[in-house]
Amino acid sequence: MHAEIIAVGTELTSGVKLDTNSQWLSQRLSELGIPTRYHTTVADDEAANIEVLRLAIARADVVLITGGLGPTLDDLTRPVLARVLNVPLVEDPESLRQIERYFASRGRSMPARNRVQAEFPQGATPLPNPIGSAPGLWIEVPREGWPACRLAALPGVPSEMKRMFKEQVEPRLAGELVIRRATLNCLGLGESQIEELLGDLTRRGADPEVGITAHDATISLRIVAHGADAAECERKIAVTSAHIRERLGDLVFSEGEEEPEHVVVRLLREQRQTVAVVEAATGGHLLERLLTVSGAEEVCRGGLVLTSRSDVEHLLGLPGLTPPGAVVGGGDTSIRGHDVARRLATACRARFHADLGLAVSPAGEIPLDSAGTTVGGAWVALAAIPTVHSMEVRQTGNPAIFAPRTAKLALDLVRRRLLGLPFPS
């Protein structure tokens, strides 16, 4: 069984408003074990609505429509559905009374035009709207050679739609296959490299199914399991998660919505360790990520965001790192970029009396005294008594993700240190 969701309204197709109803409904259907194969958005046009509705009924077992149930001439869901089903519209007396009571409760008489909201395609079951004027409807549409298509039309107002779905549509759909989801997050390799390591775990049609998405250097593995109940789904997810961790090892850094900064703050608090940060290549992105996590103030001793060579030389007391105009990390000065990051991390740790010092400095095409963030690359270093570890982060692909990617890789050094994991080579 699968579903299609139809969002009706020219305000959606024109871009004036965003369709959030379809996203919400897809999530609720998924919890019921009904995957959504199609999202269709259609303008307030009769011919287009007819075409969309006929196609949806033919190809989906469940069709949910939001919008088009108002009283105005451009609200077409009821008449279009009647035309597609080749049945007349019939007024429902109880629905009419409910609409009249709705207006009366607000000290108003019902406008004559609102009477059309009490009309339903013959054979449909009205769905009362407890907080609005537009009733919905439920109908099962026969299909030759196939099970009936179960169709619900709901108001486009999100608060009305959500309540009516939970109270009146969901009970009619309950009892189908259950779906559960989980996510494992990885860092350190690209999307294609991760997929290669996973091998047959990402094959199409597998149960659980493993999908891969990338966002700012985080590779998320989405595990989707189907089962007769939640327990069966969780068992499948546990087995697949174990296989993924076996193949990817310490590249997996978290589950669910956790980013590297959440993991690092949690580990620092658990181990009663502190960190200090200095950035000369990511424009404050690293410090910002760290400080947005609840509890970070307990473990982050402080930080500096540097934009010039003089900042490095004077604020941290490291004069003479580079000659004027030199490119840190460029050409024959590449060792200096490496050395700058290590010395910055060590000095930062000492300055803020932290257990760990984390530093990012430019390496590549951007001079150290250039404002903003580098696009050439960076050196990342982590200082902890008695050792300092450093690595180069090269600029590849989209420059817009360089800062978040570098910040995440820097934080991953902290994670690895706290968990006793090997550092990347």
Topology:
Elements: E1 3-8, H1 10-13, H2 21-31, E2 36-42, H3 46-59, E3 62-66, H4 77-85, E4 89-91, H5 93-104, E5 119-121, E6 125-127, E7 136-143, E8 146-154, H6 158-173, E9 178-186, H7 191-198, E10 209-215, E11 218-227, H8 230-248, E12 252-255, H9 260-271, E13 275-279, H10 285-291, E14 300-305, H11 309-315, H12 334-351, E15 356-362, E16 377-384, E17 387-394, H13 402-419
Parallel strand pairs: 1-2, 1-3, 3-8, 13-14, 13-15
Antiparallel strand pairs: 4-5, 6-7, 7-8, 9-11, 9-12, 10-11, 15-16, 16-17
Explained architecture:
36% of the residues lie in helices and 25% in strands. The chain contains 13 helices and 17 strands. The protein has helices at residues 10-13, 21-31, 46-59, 77-85, 93-104, 158-173, 191-198, 230-248, 260-271, 285-291, 309-315, 334-351, 402-419; strands at residues 3-8, 36-42, 62-66, 89-91, 119-121, 125-127, 136-143, 146-154, 178-186, 209-215, 218-227, 252-255, 275-279, 300-305, 356-362, 377-384, 387-394. It is elongated and about 85 Å long. 41% of the residues are buried. The model is unreliable at 321-335 and 364-375 (pLDDT under 50).
